[in-house]
């Protein structure tokens, strides 16, 4: 356990953001992509050394304006899919309330980030799906504007899109099922309540997740929505419109949960992901916790710490150590952060 202590606006979150960026090639901050280059500077560099199974890897990301270059052991890696998974992270931050309360895109993004860390194949298929989706949307506009355009080309793109969609649906459903194995246990450990599950919500009705069933269902929807898609100039069904919800005793927490229940559900969700990483990759992720103790009452804070204080590397930011039970500080490394400078206590 590593704890970075400092007042607000001293640079604590920057440390976690740098680690997240080194792992995922993007920031954990929700909403628009933040400018990670210092004001009035043209470039930035993030470097880190990761030890996994006694093997050291030197990771580096160089940024100039909007361009990024990725390196592992000083060798440039051109594809993000070949870089991600060198460092696996699960991030907790005060913004995470948006996972329950925000738009479906926030929840889809969370699913994609975690699945991409676990499976290079998923990340490649997901990227290919998005390229095909853009091509299909562009051609729908061409067909709308030009009645003599060849609609058979759309059929070819659609068939390719469906093959990628089948894989994505199956992997997301599989992942949510794995989360559900442990999420209620963690929710009960932290809150004392039980009855939490995550419900996967594809935007089409699927009778099963068998490949052929998904394929037939998607073809049916594309045929049924053809005129509507022409008018809108976009693809209206597929995994790019998926969602999932948190249900506590069958009630959707987005609408019927208190803020405390929503926060605890997110913590339980992310804790449930740890065992998935361990099963799939043979290693635990690094937990990054950005000032979340100010968000939890004393009882929940200590129950949460009990679950993470051993057996996993965690990096925590906080404004003061009063937020943390002393018994969890015995083996922790503590750092003071002031004006961007870090000093080990």
Kindly summarize this structure in a few lines.
This protein is an alpha/beta fold and 345 residues long. The chain is built from twelve helices and 13 strands.
Account of the protein in words:
The protein is an alpha/beta fold and 345 residues long. The chain contains twelve helices and 13 strands. The protein has helices at 12-24, 80-83, 98-101, 104-118, 120-145, 151-180, 183-191, 211-224, 226-232, 253-256, 259-281, 298-308, and strands spanning 2-5, 43-52, 55-64, 67-72, 75-77, 89-92, 196-201, 243-248, 251-252, 286-290, 314-318, 333-338, 341-344. It has a six-stranded mixed β-sheet, sandwiched between helices. A four-stranded antiparallel β-sheet has the order 2-3-4-5. Strands 7-8-9 form a three-stranded antiparallel β-sheet. The protein is globular, with a radius of gyration of 22 Å. The protein starts with a strand and ends with a strand. The mean pLDDT is 91.
């Amino acid at each position: 356990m590593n704890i970075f202590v400092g007042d607000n606006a001293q640079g604590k979150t920057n440390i976690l953001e740098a680690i997240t960026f080194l792992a995922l090639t993007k920031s954990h901050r929700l909403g628009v992509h933040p400018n990670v280059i210092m004001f009035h500077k043209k470039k930035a560099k993030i470097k880190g050394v990761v030890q996994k199974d006694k093997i050291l890897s030197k990771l580096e990301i160089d940024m100039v304006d909007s361009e990024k270059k990725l390196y592992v052991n000083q060798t440039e890696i051109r594809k993000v899919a070949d870089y991600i998974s060198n460092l696996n992270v699960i991030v907790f931050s005060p913004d995470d309330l948006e996972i329950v309360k925000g738009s479906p895109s926030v929840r889809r993004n969370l699913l994609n980030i975690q699945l991409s860390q676990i499976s290079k194949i998923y990340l490649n298929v997901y990227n290919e799906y998005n390229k095909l989706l853009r091509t299909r949307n562009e051609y729908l506009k061409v067909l709308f504007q030009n009645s003599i355009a060849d609609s058979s080309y759309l059929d070819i793109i659609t068939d390719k899109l469906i093959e990628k969609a089948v894989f994505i649906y199956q992997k997301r459903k599989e992942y949510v099922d794995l989360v559900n194995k442990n999420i209620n246990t963690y929710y009960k450990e932290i809150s004392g309540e039980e009855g939490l599950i995550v419900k996967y919500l594809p935007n089409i009705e699927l009778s099963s997740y068998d490949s052929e069933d998904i394929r037939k269902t998607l073809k049916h929807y594309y045929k049924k929505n053809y005129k509507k898609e022409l008018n809108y100039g976009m693809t209206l069904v597929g995994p790019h419109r998926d969602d999932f919800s948190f249900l506590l005793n069958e009630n959707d927490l987005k609408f019927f949960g208190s803020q405390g229940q929503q926060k605890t559900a997110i913590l339980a969700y992310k804790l449930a992901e740890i065992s998935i990483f361990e099963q799939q990759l043979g290693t635990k992720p690094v937990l990054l916790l950005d000032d979340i103790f100010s968000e939890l009452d004393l009882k929940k804070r200590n129950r949460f710490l009990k679950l993470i204080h051993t057996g996993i590397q965690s990096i925590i930011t906080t404004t003061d150590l009063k937020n943390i039970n002393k018994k969890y500080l015995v083996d922790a490394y503590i750092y003071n952060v002031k004006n961007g400078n870090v000093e080990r206590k």
